[in-house]
Specification:
With 282 residues, the protein is α/β, with parallel strands linked by helices. The chain has ten helices and eleven strands.
């Protein structure tokens, strides 16, 4: 039995789908089972998070592996891991971040949070695998509201370059790591290609069959509403970080193909998979 936290999120949902398709027993821990809408072959259980590890052991009964999305457990991650170990879980695969690979001299909130998370997991006594993806392709769903409203997307740095990764590829690596026990391994994950912001808008336009234009605006004209997935107070720092990616050649990894045997999905494929999210809503 594999326990999955964050099972209604982008990666967690994809992981549950892949595990159940392969007839692997799955228990999805969610905050509201009635609204989860997960495969019926998955056992869906209400997530219990507490400062007391003894309050949480029952949700791991019969499980030997765990997929951990830290946002599900917050400040109680240490107790959550202790409960898992007490209940018999042996291995945990953790959704971390490529930010952990950065120079510690340039710490950001994301960097510090995931470094702390990884250390908590090391200290838990469980065997572990860390997944360190770069930018999620799903982050570009932040443009959906502008595309619903018209044919122009406004934002900074049209030539900003990234390596967006499909959530299904992160889930696929997670599935292999859980089933094959990639103990003591940190998988750095990127998409298969470097693409600019303009490239991504063009891919979305092709997917939805509608012309779209990206209009670059000065950084000082950016408003938080342009990045709805980012807390408003973090938007200035995020925009500043985008400036460092203009006309760059970011590192690419082949980890997805090495681990799964299949090439990582392109951003264009992700856009096709999510075309309905961008089509005009009536």
């Amino acid at each position: 039995m594999i326990v999955v936290t964050g099972a209604t999120g982008n990666v967690g949902r994809a992981l549950v789908d892949q595990l159940t398709t392969a007839d692997t027993p799955v228990r999805a821990l969610v905050r509201d089972p009635r609204r989860a809408h997960l495969p019926t072959t998955a056992e869906t259980t209400r997530l219990t998070v507490s400062a007391d590890a003894t309050d949480m052991t029952a949700q791991f009964d019969g499980a030997d592996a765990l997929f951990l999305h830290a946002s599900a457990t917050g400040e109680h991650t240490t107790a959550f891991l202790a409960a898992a170990r007490t209940a018999g879980v042996q291995h945990v695969t953790v959704l971390s971040s490529i930010a952990v690979e950065d120079d510690p001299a340039h710490d950001t909130f994301i960097h510090t949070w995931h470094r702390t998370l990884e250390q908590d997991v090391r200290d838990s006594g469980l065997d572990w695998t860390f997944l360190r993806p770069g930018g999620f392709a799903t982050n570009t769903l932040q443009w959906a509201w502008q595309i619903h409203d018209g044919d122009t997307v406004r934002g900074p740095y049209a030539k900003s370059v990234s390596t967006p990764i499909h959530e299904a590829d992160i889930a696929a690596v997670a599935r292999h790591s859980l089933l094959e026990r990639h103990s003591g391994t940190a998988h750095v994950l990127t998409g298969p290609e470097a693409v600019t912001t303009e490239d991504q808008i063009a891919a979305i336009a092709h997917a939805i069959g509608r012309p779209l234009t990206y209009t670059e605006i000065p950084p000082h004209d950016v408003v938080p509403e342009m990045f709805p997935i980012i807390p408003a107070d973090m938007v200035p720092g995020f925009v500043a970080s985008l400036a460092t990616t203009v006309d760059t050649a970011p590192p690419l990894t082949t980890t997805v193909q090495t681990v799964t045997g299949n090439p990582a999905r392109t951003y264009a494929q992700w856009a096709q998979d999510h075309a309905d999210d961008f089509r005009t809503q009536n």
